[in-house]
Design brief:
Shape: globular
Structural class: mainly beta
Distance between the termini: 29 Å
């Protein structure tokens, strides 16, 4: 469910963590993984974004930041969600 005023999550975007415990953490979306239906003895997997950390607790040694997956429904401006900082650059 997408709200009309919420941007669509796309690869290349940079989002900031709204949780004060995130200490200014920002993440870059690398890819979007589609939802997977439930299989016998397993739960359904919601659509997620594969992201890498780009600030806070990362080192300036040129190495990519820590990678993780975040459910797409977390990309909303709530106290425990994320806010868009930089949109993806236009593709030629």
């Amino acid at each position: 469910m997408t709200q009309p005023d919420m941007p669509t999550v796309r690869p290349g975007q940079v989002w900031a963590d709204n949780d004060p415990r995130g200490y200014g953490r920002q993440i870059r979306v690398i890819a979007i993984e589609p939802a997977q239906p439930a299989k016998p003895h397993h739960r359904a997997v919601p659509a997620r974004a594969l992201v890498e950390q780009v600030t806070a607790r990362t080192h300036d040694d040129g190495q990519p930041g820590r990678r993780t997956r975040i459910r797409l429904d977390r990309f909303r401006p709530t106290s425990t969600g994320y806010r868009l900082v930089q949109d993806a650059e236009a593709q030629p």
